[in-house]
Each structure stands twice: as structure tokens, then as C-alpha cells.
Amino acid sequence: SFNQIIPAAYLKSAMLNSYLWTKFIRLTMMEKLSLILQKKRDLLVSDFIAGNVPDFTEKHTCLFDEYFCGSFERSPIGQEMNISKNPYAIVALGGYGRGEQSFFSDIDILLLFNKKIFGEAEKLIREIFYPLWDIGLDVAHATMTVSESVKLAATDFETMISMLDSRFVCGKSDVYFELRERLRIKINSFRKEKLISKLIDTSKARHLRFGDSSYLLEPNLKEGQGGLRDYHAILWVARIRSNLVSPRELEYNGYFSQNEFEGLTSALKYLWEIRCRLHCMAKRKCDQLYFEYQVQMAKDLSTENGDGKKPVEVFLGNLHSRMEFIKQLHLMVMAEIGYSRKFDLKGLFKGKPGGEKGLIFLRGMLFFSSSEVIVQEPFLLAEIFKKSSEFGVPISAEARRIIEDFSHLIDDDFRFNPKVINAFEHVLTAPESEVNGLGDMLSTGFLGSFMPEFKNIINRIQYDQYHIYPVARHSLHTVLAIKKFENRKASGYGSLYHKIYQELSAKKEMLLWSALLHDIGKGDHGKGHSVRGAAIAGKILSKMGFDAEFIDPIIFLVKEHLFLIKVATRRDVDDEETSILCARKIKDIDLLKMLYLLTVADSKSTGPNAWNDWTEALLQDLFLKVLNQLERGEVTDGKMVQDLEDKKKEVFSLAIEKYPSWDSEKKFELMSPRYLLHTSSKDIVAHMGLFAKLGKDELVLDVAKEGGADIRTVTLCTRDKPGLFSKISGVFAVNGLDIFDARIYTWKNNIVLDIFRVTPPKDRIFEERKWARVKENLKGAIMGRLDLELALKKRTSFHKREKLPGADSAARVVVDNSSSSFFTIIEVFANNFTGLLFKITNLLYKNELDVKVAKISTKVDQAVDVFYVRDMDGRKIDDKKRVENLIRDITDVIN
After folding, report:
1. Which pTM was predicted?
2. What is the C-alpha to C-alpha distance for residues 94 and 165, in angstroms, rounded to an integer?
């Protein structure tokens, strides 16, 4: 009998090793079976990783079935219990019950007794389950009678769902089938709609928690929207309503068409393989496809480059398309059978053709009256989306199928039909609602067919930790973000966005078209997507019959949609030249407003790493300054002198009120015009107070929390010393503080006022203690007592930042001598690491360059650091050879 159970190869190796053989024969039967299971699992996993087991979950499930069947047949305790008198069954639950056993998934088992649990049950559990725990498996078991199981399922939703997935493994089948029958009676005695409603609520909560995995760059393969749990929810609904036993019955019972079921089977097979491989890579139960596993996953699946995409981008595109398919099937089933909604049906046709020939309203959804009507009136393929958006009514699953089946009718005659274009614009400009018209157009394939250029960005991945959505989804999110500006409460930032949006009036349509098309150029690989996109957008709109007056602003917005955010984060917003440059480029006030709102919506829709309070404040500041330039014209020297005089009076007034004994006139003369123009009167008086406190101390440090922003403004007053800025940045790096912005002002008496905006310490409870340490470190660095390079080396060894696997190197240095009349602007693009800013500024100091303004922008693993510099004589760096050497030296440092 051992030869039938134990692999011959294992027996042979065991017999050749006397110690191993002696150890083996002393094991109990269950321990031997568990050891055999372990060996078989190892072999199965090895074959799976090698790509030789396409149906791993099914075969893995069978291994456990073999173990439990073998245990049942050979159990001494089981024989003592006498199954004919004390009938029981071993029942699989959960993923094991569905036959989807992944490598590290829990093994859920129910030891089911007929009417009474006998005392030997505890011994049976120890005999069968303990050996599995001994080999490191997670086995979750329950021991209940049929009545107890039914009673618990009736009161506990999770238990009911688990029972729906139950499967007989071994034992007395009569006991199991009695459970199934009594559960069916119990379900029928309930309101099925109540159970289904609970399922829908659970799904919604799960989607909110784990997000839409059909486009997230780190999707949850199981719990996210479009994940395996959506498929399970479909199964549970069908089992409650139709007593479904096999998944194949989803097609037989009319839930899916043949093509849909085949597509579902293919998508599930792909997801199961990825999930099993993910478990093997992580060496634990893991359903989140983190960045660290994605490149290797693409390699293991033999994914090849395609259309200029990296293998990992192709892989994620394939994954997203399959998860999107599962998501749409889930939404379709839930919409049709899961719940009913109340609609404002005023003016909407009910149950019969009306309002629009060929469309009918039934069971809370929109249908085509027949397939034949589509052939006669193809424009109905667009009209159904218009009616859906207009009344907030979902499109039925049957109508979605028809849209996909008749997509071949969407040709140029269809695309440029005025009625179709009107319907599309209605969906594009419709207010935000529960029904997402553009999203439905995308998921049914209509959007890609109507606008072929859009196909190139569907499932187009931007592989970094900055963009969290594929390009097409990001574009739709940008449109939605702009629509939110219609709502004063939802628009944010003191309703400024709402106010500007309302002022655009008739030009809102231009803005929404720009949002939809702003990244259309990313369909082609390579840099310069904004320029490509502008040309593509112009062609699309021209073919649709729009005139130049409508098209030209959209072309500008698409081409320049990154302009404001780049200027805000990489240039000195307080410099008058910056706002003048922007005003000269944009020229028109309404165009500025549209570009500003597009920039905000684009950044918000990119992801949390692209948008924060600091970025929002910078962008708003730039917008208001450029708006002021366009409204009142460029500032003249006379205006600047008058502004300084007004500032002087205001400072004197505040200073006398707060510090009556000060000689404010004398202090005012120490300040540079640049400092006076760019600093508020209130801050100037506060800085004068810091200077008064300095006395003979090394430095004075003031830390303030900015209202509404998770940022600290750190003002340092000290005496100027060579390399001061690099030392300050080094101290901040040693203490784990990231700099967003730095302004360096030197008074005529050699006093330095450096103003930094930085991230707060991670430990807010002991924040004051951290700032005290920063102050001591600054004193040590300035006096030469603290070796910053050594301190940073120690910190780096404990806080290493990994570059995103498979991501491109960001290293690049740009020297700009044209944007500022007084400074050379150095832009450094690099993969971020602890101490990067210190290394760059230390190099600038060694090259005898004086940093006056620094703008620091970090996108997760990439940094863009911008420095306004002059040489020690106050001149720009315009010598060609010196510029080349500087670029080379900085490149060496950041690499």
C-alpha cells in the first residue's frame, strides 16, 4: 500500500539513507501522508514555476483532496468512531471549496457531523490536522453538526457565504447533501434580495478599501475591483438566486453569453497564475502586486517588448485589460439582478419605445428595443450613452453586449455624423453623476472605436510610482476632476476653482475637451507627448467640424498643459520675471484660467505624489501673480520704487507698534531690494526680531507650522559663511527632513536669513526635541564639529531608498541662462537618495557658486532640484567651458 501512496523516487532515496528510513518508518500514518503531501507540493510548485503546470490551482487542490481522502481511509480514530453509526463528512470551504487553492492560501475545512459531535472528534482533529500544521500549512477548521451549521449560516453572513462555496471531499456524502438541502431551504425562506443586497454593500465597501485594481499600478489581485473577489461575488449571487453548483452554469443559466464566459475563464486563468507566482515570489500569502515583484513577473511570463513599451508595461497592460473585463462583468450582473434604484423618470420613456426611437427603459436600465434597430439607426450606439448621462440611468448588460457586437458600424460616416458628435459632447459635458458616461464608453469599447487615436492610450502604463493610472483612465479622471469644480463644496481651496470655473461660462466645453485629449500624445513612445498630442487633438477636432476659434485654444492647452506646474515647482514664483514670462506666453486671461484648472485637475488625477498642499499653494500663487500681470500689465521701474516705499511705510508702522525702541530705519537700510519685494511686511518685522535675538550666538532658529499644510517653515538667522547652504541641507538630510523650497537672503551687514519649507519630523509627539537636535547639529556643522559626509553615510546605510525596478534613470542636468536676467538657473533631474541635495549644493560651493533660491521637488523616487546661482562676484555663469564642466561634475555626483 505504501508503494501506491509514496512516490517511488522518495522511497528509493529513503532506503539508501538508513537514518532517514528509520525516521520515516517511525512516523504515524498521517505524518507519512503529510510528508508525501509536502514532497508532492514541492514538485508541483517547481513544475509550475518552470511553466509546465497551466492549471496549478486545480492540481494543488487535488493534492489536499488526496491527503484528506487518504487520512479518512487510514485513520485509526475514524475506524473507532464507526462512520455508519456516527456519520460525518470532511467538507472543503472557501477557496479550497471552489478548487482555487493557491500556494499560501488558507485551507478551510469543516468537519461535519450529522446530529451529534462525538468525543473522538477532538482526537480525529489532532490526527488529521496537526500533521498539516507541522509542515507549515495554514489550516482553519470548524467542527459542527448540520443543524449548527445551518443555524450559524442563518445569523452570520460570512458563514453563509463560506457555506455557498462548500464542496464534499470525503466521508458520508449523505451528511453533506443534507447540509446543502437545508441551506437551500433556509435561503428560500429568507428574502433572497436581502442577501444579495448585503453582498452588494460588502462589495462596495471592499472596492472603497482596496481601490479599482483594473487600473492601479499596484493592484490587489483578490480584493480590488476587477479582482478575484468580484468573480466570487458573481458566483454567490448566482448560487443564491439559481442554486448554481458549477461555474459553467453561469452561461447555461443566462448570466453570461458564450463569449463572455470564455473571456471570464481566460481572465481568471491569467489572474490565478499571477497570484500563485506572486505567492511563490513573496514566500507568503500576498495578493498585492507590489512594484518589487512586477519586473520579475513580466520576465517569468516571457512578456516581450511591444510598441515601444517595456515588458513590465506590456504585462501590466495585459493584467489591467483582464481585470477590467472581470470588473465589467461584475458591474453588469450586480446592476441587472443585484439591486433596484429609483430614478427621476420625468420625460423618460418607460417600457416602450418613446422619447428616442429604438431605446426603452426597463427594470431601472436602458435597453435597445432590438438588435435590428441598430442596423437601421447606428447613431443609437451613441444616443444610448447620452440618455444614460442625461437621466442618470445605467445601460443594461444586454445593451452593452449589442454595443460591442455592433462596433463595426462605427466608421468615418458614423464618427463625423453631427448627431453622434452632439451625443458625445453631451456625455463629455454632462454634470458629475453616479453614472459615468465616459467610463461606460471606455469599458464597452465605444470610445476607442469612435476616436481611434484614443485606443493607443487604453491600458498604456507609465511605469513609475508617480502615475497611478493608465493613460486613458487618467484622462477620464482629469475630466471628472474638472466637473467637480462645478460643486462649490467639492472643488476645494476656498472655492477658488469653483469661482474660476463659473467665470469660464461657454468656454467650459473647450476645457473639458482639453482634459480628455491632454495626454493623447502618449499613444506614441518617446518624449514630447504634449507637442504630439496638440497636433493629434487638432486633427480630431477638425475632422469633427469644429472651427479654428474653438480648436486653437484647445491645441494650446494640450501643448502647454505641463507649463504652469513646471514653472511653479522649478522657478522662483516671487521673481517678477517669472510671472512676466508666463503672461507673455499665455496672453489671454480666459486661457490662463483654463490652463490653471487643467493643471490642477491633471495633477490631482495623476496621484497623491503629484499633488499636495505645498504644490497647490505654489500653483495658486503663480496663477494669481500671472493673472495680476495680465490684468494690470508689466511692472515698470517706477511701480517697483513705489512698491518699495509702500512696503517701507508698512514695515515701520508694524515695527513701531511691536518694538517701539528699535531704529527701524537703520535695519531697513541693511535689506536688499529683492528681499524687500519678495517678503511680506509681517515677515520682515519677524525677521528683524530674530536678528535682534542673534546677538553673539551662532544662530537663531524659528520653526512655524503653515496653516492647512503639513509643512514647516524654518527660518534661520546667522552670519554668512562659505558653504552655509550645503551644510544646512546636509543637517536636514541627517535628520530625515526633506526640503521643498529654500530662499537665501543676505543683508548688507553679512547677516543671512535663510527660509526653508520642509517636511515635519515623522514623530510629531517629540517634534520639539527633534528641532532642538537640528539646531545643535547646525551649530556643529557651521563650527566644523560635525562631519556631515560621515553622518549621512551612516544614515544612508539604515535608510536606503530603492529605485523602482525597471524604471528609467532620471539623471539629467540643464543649465538655463535665458529665463532670468540676474541668475543662472541649474536644473538637476536625478533618482532620489538620502543626501542628494547636500552632495549637489556642496559641489556648487566647491565650484564657487552662490545659491540664492532653491526649488526642491521629489516624485517618490525621483528628484527635480532647481537652483538660482551666481558666482562669488555676483555674475551669471555664462562661460561655455565652465558650464560644460559644471554639468559633467553634477552628473558624476548624482550618478
Report:
1. 0.75
2. 6
